[in-house]
Design goal:
Length: about 300
């Protein structure tokens, strides 16, 4: 018994599962933010709106084109990624070399416009999106019942996060990407189209957000405010892990999701603020974040 409440094993493992689910979304979204910040030095406030677009893309794919969840998992992130690339090519590229505050303000404005448009047409209430039949049902683990879809989200998110880390840290393309952030002139000397690389990077970061949105659609429902609800926590995750740190975003995202879930068991009143308390403590001890590099 803790804080006057008897905690059962089923409650504990249930909240741990919820924490891992939320951590999966935190990790994928913060990973996209880290990729964009590391390459473009832009704090992408439109990330939540683009996460929402990914969920709506899955909804439109089903109801307008008859494409099931598995097709939506491919088509929606690609479509939103191209939309992100268009944003970078037509708007953000004009701000290159200026104070990063301009990029922050532009993406914040874009987020308000996108969310406002969808809220105007679809309202604030959520629209259901069914779990694919192949992932319906639950498994009895003895100590708890594990929904198949939630297990899929956790495993798939972890695979995507690891694959992204590997591509950026261990491949030649990743080496060019990292080099272009520090010395674009030298990278151009190797025949690399740096502007195209930057555009593709922003599109990829946006596609990660959209992919998280598709994964979230059957769990949280599809609604215009879904991105705004999660964005503050995701930015806290990025700050704690270290701005621009790929590994920091992944590890911190999953870890803070679990911490948040366990807090709901042992001290529910603090569950909405625990991430921000941790952020304040980390900034006091290590301002660059847990995995960040000091300048």
């Amino acid at each position: 018994m803790l804080f006057g409440h008897a905690i059962t094993a089923q409650q504990l493992f249930g909240q741990l599962l919820i924490g891992l689910i939320n951590g999966s979304f935190y990790a994928m979204l913060s990973l996209g933010l880290a990729v964009i910040f590391g390459m473009l030095n832009i704090v992408n406030f439109a990330h939540g709106a683009l996460y929402m677009l990914g969920a709506f893309g899955a909804y439109f794919a089903l109801h307008l084109f008859g494409l099931n969840y598995w097709w939506a998992l491919i088509v929606s992130p690609i479509a939103v990624g191209f939309f992100g690339a268009l944003i970078e090519r037509t708007m953000l590229t004009r701000l290159r070399g200026l104070n990063p505050l301009y990029g922050l303000l532009l993406t914040f404005g874009l987020a308000l416009v996108i969310q406002g448009l969808f809220q105007n047409f679809y309202g604030a209430s959520g629209m259901p999106y069914a779990i694919p039949p192949q992932l319906a049902g639950v498994r009895n683990l003895g100590f708890m019942y594990l929904p198949n879809y939630r297990a899929w989200v956790i495993v798939f998110s972890a695979v995507i996060c690891f694959a992204t880390w590997f591509a950026i840290e261990k491949t030649r393309l990743g080496a060019y990407l990292r080099a272009a952030t520090e010395n674009p002139t030298m990278v151009r000397a190797f025949g690399v189209n740096v502007p195209l690389l930057i555009t593709a990077t922003y599109g990829f970061g946006v596609a990660l957000a959209a992919l998280a949105g598709v994964l979230a659609a059957p769990i949280t429902q599809v609604r215009p405010g879904m991105g705004a609800d999660i964005l503050a926590v995701v930015f806290a995750v990025v700050v704690i892990g270290g701005m621009g740190s790929i590994l920091g975003s992944i590890v911190t995202g999953f870890t803070l999701g679990v911490v948040e879930g366990l807090t709901k068991v042992f001290y529910p009143e603090a569950s909405n603020t625990v991430v921000f308390v941790i952020m304040a403590i980390v900034l006091l001890i290590k301002p660059a974040g847990l995995f960040g590099r000091t300048a």
